[in-house]
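[Discussion] Sanity-checking designs against the backbone

I'm trying to build intuition for which residues belong where. Below is a structure token string of 469 positions. I'd appreciate it if someone posts a full sequence so I can compare it with mine line by line.
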């Protein structure tokens, strides 16, 4: 009997949906982001508060975006959301930005952490200083940290090849990654608190360069936003559940419960793990990890109490984790590029499907090539700041779409209506605007490059749109 198409079947339970939220979010950020956050805030207490605030903001965004996803759960994500809310151009801009900066920078960033873990085990060679310091346009140093960058590119291209060989093998590679992450984080917390020889004083003593300031002081606000920009990378992925909102049992109840429950578990996990980092190591040492470029906070913490063997073990865990995360991140976006190409809004080659492996081969290779270029453009933290800046533009636009569709389509079927409307989506939209503006102050390089990459699609849109008319 032929399977019926286009009909959603509500099979996901609350427990399954909650697990999906957790598995979609927890990844490389929890191992590394405490270091740049500490460098910004210079206070253990403020670092922990930044994790809480970023988690609450992510929850507001998830609850807001879930209403849109519930209305169009069978349609294919933001590409179709924006078509319905704002029109064809905004849909294209999201898809192009996903290719130019958001998902390709995510691929580059996660692969970067893989190579940094490898570097902790086997130091990679570097180019001479006079070559490493060559700068392009005063913005890029493509040969700096070149050993790490080269291996990162090789990883991206290798996993791209794996994905071109078929979906089944690629998906199998990531099957147990979430389980491994949970076990490793539990191991860090338990061993760190029991055997880490840490001190409560480490949680109470600020960095040597810390100066007291009011929460209304602009410098404090800048630092807090910069720290949250780092934290948001660790929370990235909360919008995944919304894509399948139409397949969750009792979505009015279970969709917000799964999002809220999953994110509360994630926030608690991040607090516990980062509490352990700051308990074991004084904040000045964690700041030193950030300044060392290729070190990872989790590895430094474990090395403090478990020595080189412990550091090697956690490095291997991070290697495996980020290998799977990189693969998962490579897997899905080319399907969007393929759909755009079929609409005449992307490179024609991306519309091709391999006759034997049934994969969007050309779209995968286009993505892999551009992700490799982004690796050369900056460091891990520069890449993640750039992609979060771009992503929150569209997260805010989706949340604002709640207001537009409530006005334009008041009688449309809404399996889930956002809790706390209009306060929750309104707060999230205002925060997205603030994040974008303050990123221009805190990280102008990342904001500039991110904006240029987002807008670089304009001439392509003009050409493709003209060609299709």
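Best answer:
Here's mine. Compare freely.
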């Amino acid at each position: 009997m032929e399977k019926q198409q286009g009909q959603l079947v509500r099979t996901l339970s609350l427990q399954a949906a909650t697990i999906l939220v957790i598995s979609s979010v927890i990844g490389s950020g929890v191992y590394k982001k405490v270091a740049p956050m500490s460098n910004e805030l210079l206070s253990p207490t403020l670092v922990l508060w930044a994790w809480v605030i970023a988690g609450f903001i992510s929850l507001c965004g998830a609850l807001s975006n879930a209403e849109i996803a519930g209305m169009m759960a069978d349609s294919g994500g933001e590409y179709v959301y924006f078509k319905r809310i704002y029109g064809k151009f905004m849909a294209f801009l999201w898809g192009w930005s996903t290719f130019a900066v958001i998902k390709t920078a995510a691929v580059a960033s996660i692969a970067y952490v893989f190579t940094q873990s490898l570097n902790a085990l086997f130091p990679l060679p570097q180019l001479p200083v006079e070559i490493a310091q060559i700068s392009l346009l005063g913005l890029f140093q493509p040969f700096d940290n070149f050993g790490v960058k080269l291996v990162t590119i090789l990883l991206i291209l290798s996993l791209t090849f794996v994905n071109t060989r078929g979906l089944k093998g690629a998906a199998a590679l990531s099957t147990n990654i979430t389980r491994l992450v949970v076990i490793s984080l539990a191991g860090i917390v338990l061993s760190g608190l029991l055997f880490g020889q840490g001190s409560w004083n480490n949680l109470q003593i600020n960095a040597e360069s810390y100066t007291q300031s009011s929460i209304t002081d602009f410098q404090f606000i800048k630092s807090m936003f910069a720290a949250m920009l780092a934290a948001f990378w660790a929370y990235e992925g909360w919008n995944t559940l919304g894509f399948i909102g139409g397949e969750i049992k009792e979505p009015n109840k279970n969709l917000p419960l799964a999002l809220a429950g999953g994110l509360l578990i994630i926030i608690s996990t991040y607090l516990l793990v980062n509490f352990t980092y700051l308990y074991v190591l004084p904040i000045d040492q964690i700041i030193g990890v950030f300044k060392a470029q290729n070190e990872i906070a989790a590895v430094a913490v474990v090395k403090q109490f478990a020595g080189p063997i412990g550091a090697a073990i956690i490095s291997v865990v991070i290697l495996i984790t980020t290998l799977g995360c990189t693969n998962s991140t490579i897997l899905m976006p080319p399907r969007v590029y393929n759909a755009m190409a079929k609409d005449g809004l992307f490179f024609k080659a991306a519309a091709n499907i391999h006759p034997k492996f049934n994969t969007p081969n050309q779209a995968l290779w286009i993505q892999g090539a551009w992700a490799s270029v982004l690796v050369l453009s900056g460091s891990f933290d520069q890449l993640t700041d750039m992609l979060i800046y771009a992503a929150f533009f569209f997260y805010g636009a989706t949340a604002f779409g709640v207001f537009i569709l409530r006005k334009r389509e008041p009688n449309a079927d809404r399996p889930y209506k956002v809790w706390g409307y209009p306060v929750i989506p309104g707060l999230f939209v205002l925060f997205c605007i603030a994040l974008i503006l303050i990123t221009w102050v805190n990280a102008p390089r990342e904001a500039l490059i991110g904006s240029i990459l987002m807008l670089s699609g304009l001439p392509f849109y003009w050409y493709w749109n003209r060609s299709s008319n």
